[in-house]
Sequence to fold (453 residues):
Amino acid sequence: MLPSACGTRVSLILANARILPMDPAMTEIERGWIALDGDRIAALGTGNPPAGKALDMAGDLLMPGMVNPHCHMPMTLFRGLAEDVDDRLFRYILPLERALVTAEVVEIGARLAALEMIRGGVTTVADMYYFEDRIGAVLDASGLRGVVGQTLADFAAPDHGSMDEGFARLDALADLYRDHPRITASAAPHAPYSTGLAVMERVAHWSAAHPGLPVQMHLAETRAELDWAEKTHGVTTVEVTDRAGLLTPTLVAAHVMYPTEADMDLIAARGAHVAHNARSNGKAGRGIAPVTALRARGVKVGLATDGAMSGNTLDLFSQMAPAAMFQKIAGGSRRPLPCAEVLRMATIEAAATLGMADRTGSLEPGKQADLIRISLSDPRLHPIYDLSSTLVFAALPCDVRATMVAGRWLMRDRMVETLEPEKVLADALQVARRFRAKIEEIDKQADRGQTDG
Ligand SMILES: [Zn+2]
Fold:
């Protein structure tokens, strides 16, 4: 450790960088430095750095690592499967999950996801799936920051046979990560229609007993869900969630496609948050989530990827442009959701949805050193009139040169240092072979059914 000019302890200085700290004023530093103290940011400034061990960033951009508040990491293994089949969830995905998704498969899919995220500049992810202890292990080993959410649902789950077993797994997860510096446990009731009021109330009790741990849930995702709420409870699905006591500042609600005006007022009044998955929503033909209307009410909305089965990629560069375009299409104008706001939704605002804005999502003294180095050298990015526009509409995940979480490089010069990329891909291909055989079996059975019928 070296004492710096400004009196704080400094372990490393990243110098000669263009910096977008993502502070409230959206300051841009043309040429500056960031001093690190172990896992934290000690200071940052313009011009020449203070004395100390410095790394030359060669004019590359340093910005906060991106935060993805809604993902199903192991579903990388389903990427591109039955892309244009409307009933693919029931025809393929659920049978494949029941038959073949084991703890080992979850780990293989999560490793593929971690590799993709590190290469794409994501440093924090909130996951909801099964065997989340294994996903936590992958996040831990790969050096990422994350929220691991135990899914609770009425349908047959790969990792629990009853709701009591599901809650036992949730308790174990909370114990396992109680004091972990980068991994946070979370309850993840699948959706109001797939858990029901009683289970949602049980989650609300659990949540009250575990302050600081986020709750993740799909909400108002499909029109069928609205019908369920109306028929079963005579209210909207958002109101059912509120009745269960789940609409709180710890909730990260994914999608929120079809809220009424009153629903949006309620979400804002309760301080609940939203994860917006533009590509996933668009590909499913579901429409455009009312992101502008939610944010106008003060609701924090983070950009998310959803699983790779739904949104195909796990980087947020792929999400920023569609998220902006959807709001412009809905608003019939260029003005809605300006580029700087989109960038905030991929970083600091997404961190806020997870209750982590005090730790990550912006480059400020005292916060964790979660950052990415982006090369701006590609012709595709020039000229740069507006850095936010460049990043939202022209930059790609391959422009990310280096990724750091908690002061540790996970990737340098595009080489991931915490995973074995070749083994990760080979393992995933083996699982895909098993999936393909099962798909052929399902198709044969369906053909036979048609012939018999
Ligand atoms: Zn989802």
